[in-house]
Amino acid sequence: MDRHMTTSVGPKLSAVTIRNDTHAPARVGAYLTSQVMQDIGQQKGVLDTDALDKAGLGPSFAAFDMTSITPSEMGLVSKNLYALGLIDKTTANLLISAGTGLDSVGNPSAPNIKMNALDYFAARIDFLRTASVGNDQYGFQVVPDYIKTVYVLQNLDEFAKSQRAADATHGEGVNPLANGNSHLGGISIRV
Length: 191
Fold this sequence. Notes:
Elements: E1 2-7, E2 16-21, H1 30-40, H2 49-54, H3 58-61, H4 71-83, H5 89-96, H6 117-133, H7 137-170, E3 181-184, E4 187-190
Antiparallel strand pairs: 1-2, 3-4
Helix pairs in contact: 1-6, 4-5, 5-7, 6-7
């Protein structure tokens, strides 16, 4: 429900309308993200990174950075992790829709603008927790799914960092995602 406030500001100035959409999460700062991440912590093993490593897919995910990723890139990561059987459908859907806003005809409005996925998910978790306090059953039901998705992102981010460190140690400066092309076990990725 939108709250509107209209005020008249003198004889020569027109009325001003301020909209406050109570259903949209506010822009998240580092403080809120830090608080939410501190509250939910980390959980290793939510994403089977050993399976990624054994399949030789480390180089394919080495460029992953959860603090600087576009919704399009997040969608590709989501689709591939799901296709590999490493995440469930709910997690895949949350990842694929992260940071996407739709225009008037239903197309993503800014699919190639970098975002911090942790900021996005922290805002959603905070908003849904607040909503669930007001007896919003949807918020109550989905918060654990959002938290699990954050754990997947954290696990993948750690895997990517370890892959980059291994590449630097071995002198392999080649990163398949850096040039926009990669293949994951028969699955083609274009970013």
